[in-house]
Amino acid sequence: MNSTGVWRQRLGYGVADFSCNLVWQMITLYLMFFYTDVMGLALVQVSLLFLITRFVDAITDTIMGVIIDKTNTRWGKSRPYFLLGAIPFGLLAVLAFYVPDIGPVGKLVYAYITYIGLSTAYTMVNIPLASILPSLTSDEQERTNLATVRIIFSFIGATAVSAITLPMVNILGNGSQAQGFFWTMVIFAIVATVFFFVTFKNVEEKVKLHQEKVTVKQAFSSLKGNRPWYIFAINIVFMWGSHFFMQGALIYYFTYNVGRPELASVIASIGAFVPIIGTFATPFISRKMYKKTLFMISSTINLAGIIIMLVANINVTGLIIGAVIAALGFGLRQSIYFSMQADPVDYGEWKSGISAAGLMMSLNGFIGKVALAAAGALSGLFMSWGNYVPNETQTASALLAIKMNYLIIPAGMVVASMVIMSFYNLDKIFPKIRAELNDRDPVHDSREQSA
Hints:
This protein is mostly helical. Helix content is 82%, strand content 0%.
């Protein structure tokens, strides 16, 4: 493939995660706040809503993976869903940030319907984004390059949301947060929808698998003995759980604990923009060391930043320094994570003869959604335990609960993540696995070179 084609695919792949993050960042940063402080739902109701929705979403992730593995079109297995899911994704994103005038019970029912709907639409476009990577190239370094471009665009999308959402809410709302969030989401949703069409046009599944359609039973059986994936999957709970806790508690921490709500956008922007620096460095560093080693180093940097913020307490300078360091480590870790997740797919194909990329990626998504559900539900329960009351001066117990959600629990989960990943040893044998797979099916290489 010539350089123009390589970069067209990289950029086409990357803008899909830009689209995802225009909506995902809104959910993680502002949806809980939107439900409690704008729509007026009770915190306990929102906690249960998050828990139920995410478990439903986790199930749909697995179903989506099976659907992808059974899909066989002229566009490939994963690619068609960028086209089919774009409009539902944008439409449901808008509806999720709308406040209907239908009373407390009606609003709660509406929240369930729209949030579950949005989560399902997100699954429809996001699971293919992960499952398509092994089919875009069989070259390990190019997978890292693609994952890096993807993460760079994800951080650009996250930065945009973090930096401009609250100002846009104030401008477009003209004094009404409900109106402001709605019109802000309308703009983000239109952009996200258009870019998914761009992705569909510019990516191509070049690595074709020459096997019969995989049954559900065969797909699940291919997971047996895939120890690298088991370790990787367990790690997801703790790696992403730490991030979800921090994201969900950020606006509460700076509003109530620090007493500087305007700093929420600053810290969120740091958390979205600074990781790009680490992400840019990932392809170069990954040539010098194993992916696992880079994951551990980046996790250590991330943990150091969180600890600095914990020690800083409400000192703004210390909080900003800690946020920058934590974000730098997160950028390195997230980029190598997305590169790593394609490798257990190849290991499974090498060991069982069956490629179940859709199922495996969807199960990764399932576990991530469980982590998100648990983080959202536990955050709400901790704050309820602390007697949190929206828009009021908080008690010492409420402030402690918020601090636990934002700093203490995330630090512990990063440590747990590092312990789990210490058992991951696929890097050492991966070149041999990739070479044997190419020997089994030389079309992998010839197709990519001729594309």
